[in-house]
Write a structure and sequence with these properties.
CATH class: Alpha Beta
CATH superfamily: Gcn5-related N-acetyltransferase (GNAT)
Shape: globular
Number of helices: 2
Number of strands: 7
CATH topology: Aminopeptidase
Largest sheet: 7 strands, mixed
Strand order of the largest sheet: 1-2-3-4-5-7-6
Helix content: 10-25%
Order of helices and strands: EEEEHEHEE
Number of domains: 1
Length: 110
């Protein structure tokens, strides 16, 4: 399935050189957004995400890529170690995520 996001942005991925645990983190970039993610047996985990130009809509494209991939692969989408309370509240109240642990959220698709 070929995905076309709102802004027709590609999902670019590259190795992350500083892995220090048993999870193989990868770097991603979608437009002006970039961060770290991993594919686990039951979830796609996002550890870090930043947008070099906030409010340009590219974060929505990131979410489209991850949400569609999670649906396709029957996985949860988890965003971990959220340090920004407003961002966590946005994910829970506007995007349908559920809080778990201290600073984490997840979304179940299937």
């Amino acid at each position: 399935m070929l995905l076309t996001t709102q802004h027709s942005l590609d999902f670019e991925v590259a190795p992350y050189e500083n892995n220090i645990d048993t999870v193989e983190w990868l770097r991603f970039r979608v437009g002006t957004c970039y961060g770290l993610w991993a594919s686990l047996p039951s979830s796609y985990d996002i550890l870090a995400i930043d947008n070099k130009k906030p409010h340009n809509g590219h974060f929505n494209d990131v979410m489209e890529w991850f949400e569609n991939s999670a649906k396709r692969d029957n996985k949860q989408l988890r965003i971990l170690e959220i340090m920004n309370d407003r961002f966590r509240d946005h994910l829970i109240n506007k995007r349908g995520f559920v809080a778990f642990g201290l600073n984490n959220v997840y979304k179940q698709f299937n």
